[in-house]
Write a structure and sequence with these properties.
Blueprint: H1 17-42, H2 44-65, H3 74-112, H4 119-150, H5 152-162, H6 165-171, H7 176-187, H8 191-228, H9 242-257, H10 261-278, H11 280-308
Helix pairs in contact: 1-3, 1-4, 1-10, 2-3, 2-9, 3-4, 3-6, 4-5, 4-6, 5-7, 6-7, 8-9, 8-10
Length: 309
């Protein structure tokens, strides 16, 4: 069944910054059940591994902060923290790769099928593209790392076109090297509007993250303040109990689930820039109108021939 015209969101059209933000949240609100269903089937395992690694890293890092002065084997705790951090960021990278692939493939299905998201089609597309997105994510990391080594300013410049890398990779079905070149090309002469859109979406996510982390922050402050009056400095680490770890884990889970607004926003930005440069959506609508007129003409001619008989 086709969606009604009041709910269908046309991606292939020009938008201003405010329209991109509004339509991104509108798309999420209308399709969140299918989006999270697909995410659970594709990005669920990397996400679960990240949450476990994050909880373990939080527990050992905080408890060791106050124990280092009295622990002659502190070097081993430092090693444990570094190793757990390495696994945490590795699983986070895998989750981001699967999540960006899943969201972008979902939007492609939505666009191709005029508002219908076909779950099987999306999952099959994710399977064919996940290798390329993992490679693209790795390339993106090294490009930004190299830019940071050279100077901080190039990081900001390169991060804008690379923000659209996964969208170009999937929507245009290109390999990684071609997608990187196309991402820089599509942002050309539209860098500032892309930067402000990316910045605003990131800012909204950051503010939401602060709100989600607020209960954890308040609890730890109260617990630490209460404990410091009762125990010695070296025992303050005990204030970070299991409840604090649960708070941290839950807030982190919600925080990175909300991050799906970033690839959704990137998809709207991509279609906006593509429409400004190539007018793909406008040409498709003109073609569809022409095809509709041809069908009407054929129907009229058929009726006239029937009447003669």
């Amino acid at each position: 069944m086709m969606p009604s015209t009041t709910t269908y969101i046309e991606f292939k059209r020009k938008r201003e910054l405010g329209d991109i933000i509004t339509d991104a949240f509108k798309f999420l609100r209308q399709n969140f059940k299918m989006i999270f269903k697909i995410l659970a089937k594709t990005a669920g395992i990397p996400f679960a591994l990240f949450i476990v690694a994050q909880a373990y890293y939080t527990a050992i890092s905080f408890s060791s902060v106050f124990a280092q002065t009295n622990n002659p084997f502190g070097i081993f705790e430092t090693t444990s923290i570094l190793v757990s951090a390495l696994f945490m960021y590795l699983f986070l990278f895998l989750y981001f790769s699967f999540m960006f692939t899943a969201i972008t493939c979902t939007i492609k299905s939505y666009v191709d099928n005029k508002g219908i998201i076909k779950e099987t089609e999306v999952i099959d597309h994710i399977r064919t593209k996940i290798g390329a997105t993992l490679l693209a994510g790795t390339a993106k990391f090294f490009i930004l790392a190299l830019a940071f080594v050279v100077c901080f300013i190039p990081v900001i410049y390169f991060s804008v076109p690379l923000y659209l890398l996964f969208a170009v990779l999937i929507f245009e079905n290109k390999n990684v090297s071609d997608a990187i070149g196309s991402a820089f090309d599509i942002v050309k002469e539209e860098w500032w509007i892309t930067f402000f859109t990316m910045f605003l979406i990131g800012l909204l996510w950051y503010v939401a993250s602060l709100v989600l982390n607020l209960p954890t922050t308040i609890y730890v402050w109260i617990k630490t303040f209460t404990t410091i009056q009762e125990v010695s400095y070296s025992d303050i680490g005990g204030s970070y109990d299991i409840l604090a770890i649960v708070f941290t884990t839950v807030s982190a889970s919600l925080q990175y689930l909300l991050y799906i607004i970033v690839p959704i926003g990137a998809s709207f930005v991509y279609y906006n820039l593509n429409e400004r440069k190539h007018q793909t959506g406008t040409l498709e609508r003109i073609d569809s109108i022409g095809a509709s007129d041809d069908d009407d003409d054929e129907e009229i001619n058929s009726n006239n021939n029937f009447s003669r008989l």
